[in-house]
């Protein structure tokens, strides 16, 4: 990196044949009064910006962390390569977390906008009781099924249970069957009035 800083964008150096879009440049220089040549490896880092499909996702790549926004935000400088990726999204109904790998390589310049797609699901909810309150893991969303006819973003899980609480025709509280969040459509049923 020092050699790159000394010469304008590394263009003043004499490449000896291996160039990866100038990200890795191998050059030779005269050393010790010109009696020897020394080989210099110059690595130019990429400025990496990140954006996701779920705004507010916390992204970590190589111990650098950022919370994504609607537009790309700069995460930092990286040497081109493959890195471990961790993400966390605190959704309105459940957290969505995951890990993976990301290849940080640019074929044109020294800036890269990495678009990371966070996999999630959408679950449609239906009931004959439109004023029933939706509960997730026994916690009220304080929204009726009419207001909350779709849960999104969520991930399918046998551990997440959804049910409704409504008032029957005589004003008594009734509870629907409880369903795991494992399908894209749930039709809630209640015991007969």
Characterise the protein shown here.
This protein is mainly β. The protein has one helix and 18 strands. A hairpin with a 2-residue loop joins strand 12 (133-136) and strand 13 (139-144).
What key phrases describe this protein's structure?
five-stranded antiparallel beta sheet; 193 residues; four-stranded antiparallel beta sheet; 18 strands; 1 helix; rod-shaped; 56% strand; mainly beta
Describe the secondary-structure layout.
Blueprint: H1 2-6, E1 15-19, E2 24-31, E3 36-43, E4 46-52, E5 58-61, E6 64-67, E7 73-78, E8 81-90, E9 95-104, E10 111-116, E11 121-126, E12 133-136, E13 139-144, E14 150-154, E15 157-167, E16 173-175, E17 179-181, E18 185-187
Parallel strand pairs: 4-10, 11-18
Antiparallel strand pairs: 1-2, 2-3, 4-7, 5-6, 5-8, 8-9, 11-14, 12-13, 12-15, 15-16, 15-17
Count of helical regions: 1
Query: Uncertain runs with pLDDT below 50, 5 residues or more?
Result: 1-20
Mean pLDDT: 85
The helix/strand series, from N terminus to C terminus, equals HEEEEEEEEEEEEEEEEEE
Output the structural class.
mainly beta
Assess the beta-strand content as a share of residues: over 45%
Strand count, sense and closure of the main sheet? 5 strands, antiparallel
Overview in brief:
The protein is built from 1 helix and 18 strands. It has one helix spanning 2-6; strands spanning 15-19, 24-31, 36-43, 46-52, 58-61, 64-67, 73-78, 81-90, 95-104, 111-116, 121-126, 133-136, 139-144, 150-154, 157-167, 173-175, 179-181, 185-187.
């Amino acid at each position: 990196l020092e050699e790159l800083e000394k010469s304008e964008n590394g263009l003043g150096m004499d490449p000896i044949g291996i160039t990866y879009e100038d990200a890795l440049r191998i050059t030779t220089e005269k050393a010790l009064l010109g009696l020897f040549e020394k080989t210099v490896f110059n690595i130019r880092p990429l400025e990496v910006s990140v954006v996701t499909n779920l705004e507010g996702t916390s992204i970590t790549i190589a111990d650098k962390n950022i919370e994504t926004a609607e537009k790309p935000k700069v995460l930092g400088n990286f040497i081109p390569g493959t890195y471990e990726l961790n993400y966390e999204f605190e959704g309105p109904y459940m957290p969505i977390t995951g890990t993976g790998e990301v290849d940080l390589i640019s074929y044109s310049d020294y800036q890269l906008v990495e678009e990371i797609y966070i996999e999630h699901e959408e679950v449609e909810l239906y009931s004959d009781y439109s004023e029933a309150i939706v509960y997730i893991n026994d916690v009220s969303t304080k929204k009726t099924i009419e207001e909350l006819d779709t849960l999104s973003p969520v991930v399918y899980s046998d551990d997440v249970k959804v049910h409704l609480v409504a008032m029957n025709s005589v004003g008594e509280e009734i509870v629907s069957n409880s369903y795991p969040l494992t399908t894209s459509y749930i039709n809630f049923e209640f015991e007969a009035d």
